[in-house]
Every structure is written in structure tokens, then in C-alpha cells.
Amino acid sequence: ISDLPEDVLVELLSLLPAQDLICTCRLVSTQWRYVVDLTTLWKRKCQREGFYIQNLDRSISDWKIFYMLCNLKRNLIKNPCAEENFQHWKLDNNDGDKWKIEDMPGPHGKEMPDPKVHKYFVTSYGPCFKSQLITLQKEGYWNQLMDEKRPEIVVKDWYAARFDCGCRYELRVRLLSEDYIVLDDFHPEPVVIEQWNDAMWREISHTFQNYPAGVRYIWFQHGGQDTQFWAGWYGIRVTNSSITIGP
């Protein structure tokens, strides 16, 4: 196999999983290490797996990292659409008649633009907030990657009100160090929705860029309450939350 032309070796090795290439194949010989480090090999893997876009050619400085980020990319928020009850969520505030899960579109509500979303979380007349803490290393994002490449971190959330009741929505996302020190923070002004509104679902999004080195956790919290203090579940509705990391 050592006598194979370089382009053939690239083609063969590009069929292997990235972890095998880096942890095993790279250690076989000087030649294999050279081939595994070739831009053409990682570009070929991107082509094989549908990550390659021709007009990105000039903007990608490291195709190996680009492949790794594409391969890892997924929603890091678990149970974003209430399909698993409150599993994976920490209920930080659970006042009034507490958090509840309802089926789309719900009383005096409207369907989500995404037909795959069937449920949502709904708040009550007391403050209701829930959160998730994402450990980046557990999700496959190693420290050197986060510190040197600092890929974009994209946060999205969807919220809506009932037609017949006013409510308040809040979102807070923090990038935390190993010691839980806040390195970057997204906390927009609370959204207050008046009674007799259109009940439409709206998306809020934010992209963290050029954040400090040392990010090890992402903390996501959202929630709110109704503004008319009605017993039951007349507060803000949330669903389809997401956090994705670059490229």
C-alpha cells in the first residue's frame, strides 16, 4: 500500500472516519502522516459527506477543522420541543401554576412555521424559567478548537403568546469558563406582548463571534410569565430552541 500513488492513497484514506485517520493512520508512517495532513484529503471527505460548497474554497483556511465542525454540527439543546416532557431541563423558577406542556397550536394559538414541531412549553402567572448547561467537551468540542478557532456559536429560540392574554418573554445565554466565569453574555431586553395580539410564533437569534478564549460551557435560559396574573397557563410559550456551533 505504501507504493500507491498519493492521489489513490488520499482517495482510500478519505473513506475512513476522522478519528481513525488522526489517532491511528497518522501514526503509521511519515508518508501516511503527510497524506492525512493534506488539504486535499479533508476536502475530499467534505465532498463525500456533502459539506463541500465550491464558493467557500477561498474562505476556508483549514479544511480539516472545517470538516470536524461540519461533522459535529447539530442542535446542542436536548429536548427542545417538549417531546420528552421536561427531561434535560432544569426548572430554575416554577411559580404560579408552574410550567406546563401543551400541543400545538394550543388554546388561542397558532401553528409553528415548522410542521415538525408539535409541542411547546408554556408559563404561568408567576415567573417560570428553565435552563440547560452544555459541556462542550462532552459534545466533542475540544479545548484547543474552542480557544484557537473560536467557531461561531449560533443561538435560536421561538416564542409566542396567546391571543387573549399579555405576557413577557426573556432569554439569556452565557459562555462560561472552566470555573463558570462569564466570558460573554447575550441578554436582550425582555419582550412584552400585549393582550389581543396576533399569537404568531417569532424567532430570536444571536451569533457569538470573536469571544474570549477559555469557553468550556454554554448556559441557556428562557422563560417568562403572563402579565395579567390569570390562574392557569396564559404566559409565554417557547419551543424549538437551538444552539449550534460553526463553521
From TrEMBL:
Pfam families: F-box-like, FBA
Origin organism lineage: Eukaryota, Metazoa, Chordata, Craniata, Vertebrata
PANTHER family found in the cross-reference section: F-BOX ONLY PROTEIN 6, F-BOX ONLY PROTEIN 6-LIKE PROTEIN
Cellular component terms (Gene Ontology): cytoplasm; SCF ubiquitin ligase complex
PROSITE patterns: FBA, FBOX
Descriptive protein name: F-box only protein 6
Coiled-coil spans in chain: none
Matching SMART domains: FBA (SM01198), FBOX (SM00256)
One function term, GO molecular function aspect: ubiquitin protein ligase activity
Domain F-box: 1-45
Biological processes annotated in GO: ERAD pathway; glycoprotein catabolic process; SCF-dependent proteasomal ubiquitin-dependent protein catabolic process
Keywords for the protein's UniProt record, in alphabetical order: Ubl conjugation pathway
Species the sequence originates in: Pygoscelis adeliae
Occurrences of domain FBA (ranges): 66-247
